[in-house]
Amino acid sequence: MRRRIHVKKKWVIQSRLKLLFITMFFLFVSVFLVLHFISKRITPGLMEYAELHARKLVTLLINSAVTESIGEDLEADSLFLITKDSNGEIRSIDLDPVKVNRLLSNTTNSIQVNLYHIEKGEVEKLSLMDDVLRDYDPEDLKKGIIGNIPTGVIFKNALLSNLGPKFPIRLKIIGDIITNVYTKVTNYGINNAVVEVSIKVDVKIQAILPFSSKMVEVTSDIPLTIKLLQGSVPSYYFGNKAVVPNES
């Protein structure tokens, strides 16, 4: 009798272990399939929206930084160094390296500092124009959140876009912020030229969701000033060539 009870208990234990093993196996497979579905179907759609949010905010910060750098202690026209001859005609034009370096330094520092404060949720330390963050929730920004994405956006349907739980978006700076000034010269009319000066800013950030992240590179070209250079006008213009007659 005792042996039968012992065998029965052993059989029950083995059955329970098998049931536990089967349950854990199916649970593991279910979790794997759910995670695979999220990774392949849901994550790309949500990351697309997270990238748009990140690009929008960084572009606003870049524009604000350039505007403040120009407005504080620089005038766009003062970036030029113009050399004229004794007759007052322009012989050469260049960019003032001191003022250009100051502009680039101020712009880079402003973008870097403000991105750092947003990353840390230090809203009170932001040095931005008043209307830059008007579309953002101050309470979210204090938590380092730049936006929330409802799960329903993956269906790309206006009626379903606000359904489901919302995932917060955060930012993190990656690498250095690169700023540079470049010029473009275009012929204009007879013996004239238009000089365009722009600043190019490259920023690398990481858009972060609770379960995924993506590196985002934002490049922005912002015009600083346009200047018309007028040279000496030739006696007449013919066949796309300036012709000056002989004085003999």
Structure characterization notes:
The chain has 248 residues and is of the alpha+beta class. 40% of the residues lie in helices and 31% in strands. The chain contains 3 helices and 9 strands; from the N terminus they run αββααβββββββ. It has helices at residues 2-73, 97-120, 138-141, and strands at residues 80-84, 90-95, 147-150, 166-173, 178-188, 192-209, 212-230, 236-238, 241-243. Strands 3, 4, 5, 6 and 7 form a 5-stranded antiparallel beta sheet that branches. A two-stranded antiparallel sheet has the order 1-2. A hairpin with a 2-residue loop joins strand 6 and strand 7. Helix 1 packs antiparallel against helix 2 (97-120). It is elongated and about 110 Å long. It starts with a helix and ends in a 5-residue tail after the last strand. Mean pLDDT is 77; it is low at 233-248.
Properties at a glance:
248 residues, alpha+beta, two-stranded antiparallel ribbon, 3 helices, 9 strands, disordered C terminus
Number of strands: 9
Report the total helices: 3
Output mean pLDDT. Answer: 77
Radius of gyration, whole Å: 32 Å
> Which percent range fits the helix content?
40-55%
Q: Biggest β-sheet, characterized?
A: 5 strands, antiparallel
Oligomer: single chain
Structural class: alpha+beta
- What is the approximate shape? elongated
Unreliable spans: 233-248
Please report which band the strand proportion falls in: under 5%, 5-15%, 15-25%, 25-35%, 35-45% or over 45%.
25-35%
Order of SSEs, N→C? HEEHHEEEEEEE
End-to-end Cα distance, whole Å, is: 139 Å
